[in-house]
Design goal:
elongated; alpha/beta; single chain; about 300 residues; 8 strands
């Protein structure tokens, strides 16, 4: 097993233990009936897989033909396969087209979801691939966000465009992008504020940022990535829905799976929001963010070897 898969397994351990324990309790009886399937559905809902996905998985499981005594490993394997079916259509790599230069990535998400750290990790990955990357500190509301981005800039050896706390976010994005074009950057990340409790204000700010970006590069932003924190469970689903109302989210990055017993939330999000998932994070280190793989995720969530 690779280091990444081992970390993913550890990251999803709390979730998989909860589900596996529940499966053991439910399937002590040897036959599958309506009561068993209802209990299975309740278990999946309690693992944050959402009502729609849980009902779909339980129904599909109920239609399967088992010609021998039910083995717990077989049950987990079958459930993992059903979860993978829901996740697979949304397993998509982030493609950075060389013809789009700079490739502009607008990062959105609530404060505390790991957005700024994710920018740093992605910058590190892209820099290692030989791409010239820069960052724009567009979360001007919080001094800590600007400082955090500057720390990542130093760590990755890339330029960070920043202005004073409280500066107009759209102006910062505009000037920062002008500089990125002038410097011939391959990729530029624009950090943004994440005050979702003030939805109307955030909506206006993000729309304004997008408008000024288009004045410089009409086809930009080329990607709008939403970072969500897995530990928040159903609240993460609500965040995806809320941000999709505000802005055209092109892909998701799911963080903090290492501390969560709510790993099933990605199944709920895939079923209910239908948004590509590019990366998942299972720790603090740069190497702890990797491309999302539906099969690996489903198998680790159900502790299937």
């Amino acid at each position: 097993m690779s280091g990444w898969l081992a970390k993913l397994g550890l990251g999803l351990k709390k979730s998989s233990q909860k589900i596996s324990g529940g499966i053991s309790d439910i399937f002590t009886k040897k036959r599958i009936d309506a009561e068993t399937l209802a209990e299975l559905e309740d278990l999946l809902i309690s693992a944050d897989m959402g009502v729609k996905a849980s009902a779909k998985i339980a129904a599909a499981f109920g239609k399967k033909r088992f010609d021998k005594e039910l083995d717990e490993k077989d049950i987990r394997r079958e459930l993992a396969a059903e979860i993978e079916k829901i996740l697979k259509p949304w397993e998509k790599s982030l493609i950075i087209g060389a013809e789009k230069k700079p490739f502009v990535v607008l990062m959105v998400g609530v404060n505390g979801a790991g957005k700024t750290t994710t920018i740093g990790k992605l910058t590190s990955k892209l820099s290692a691939q030989g791409k010239k990357v820069s960052m724009i500190a567009g979360d001007t509301f919080r001094a800590a966000a600007v400082e955090q981005l500057q720390v990542w800039g130093k760590r990755c050896g890339v330029r960070v465009f920043a202005k004073e706390t409280g500066a107009d976010a759209a102006s910062v994005a505009y000037e920062g992008l002008q500089e990125a074009v002038k410097c011939g950057d391959d990729v530029v990340f624009i950090d943004t504020a994440g005050r979702l409790q003030n939805k109307a204000g955030l909506m206006e700010e993000l729309k304004k940022v997008v408008r000024v970006i288009k004045k410089i590069l009409p086809e930009a932003p080329h990607a709008i990535l939403l970072t969500i924190d897995a530990t928040t469970g159903q609240n993460a689903l609500a965040q995806v829905q809320a941000f999709k109302e505000i802005i055209e989210v092109s892909g998701l990055i799911v963080t903090k799976l290492d501390g969560s017993a709510k790993g099933g939330i990605l199944t709920a999000i895939s079923e209910e929001c239908g948004t590509p998932v590019h990366f998942i994070g299972v720790g603090e280190g740069i190497e702890d963010l990797d491309e999302f793989n539906a099969a690996d995720y489903a198998r680790n969530l159900l502790d299937v070897e």
